[in-house]
Amino acid sequence: MAEKTKPRKRYNCLKCPAYCCSYQHIPVTDDDISRLAEHYSLTFEAARRKFSKRGDEDSPRVLRHKEDEHFGSICRLIDTETRNCTVYEARPAICRDFPSQNRCGYYDFLTFEREVQEDEEWVATTGNW
Ligand code: SF4
Ligand code: SF4
Questions:
Q1: What is the pTM of this model?
Q2: What is the number of domains present in the chain?
Q3: Could you point out which of 22, 37, 58, 62 has its C-alpha 20 to 30 Å from the C-alpha of 115?
């Protein structure tokens, strides 16, 4: 039987201001914390405190945030100037899996608006999409 080919990605994170990194609840597991601890040569406990905070019943630990000019707040592990993840190789599993399909709703909206507004740099914020 012929091997199925993966559908081509219909989004480009490098052209996006990283909207998904502004989600309030980005769950992290102990494995994710261990990876971050190793990346920064920190103890597990130090990395846990530095990069995560208490979440809720479904996600006991979530990534900490910092201020962001576009979305109000965003994951503290992002570079807010370049809009790139500063721990790409060591990023949490959920960040690797997202958006779990070949389209990203935010990117579709962003692309449409940038075309309409003829502005390649335009940023859609949570208030207007
Ligand atoms: S919102 Fe979509 S396009 Fe933007 S960084 Fe996240 S996954 Fe990539
Ligand atoms: S760890 Fe990186 S990819 Fe994940 S939310 Fe933070 S900045 Fe985004």
A1: 0.91
A2: 1
A3: 22
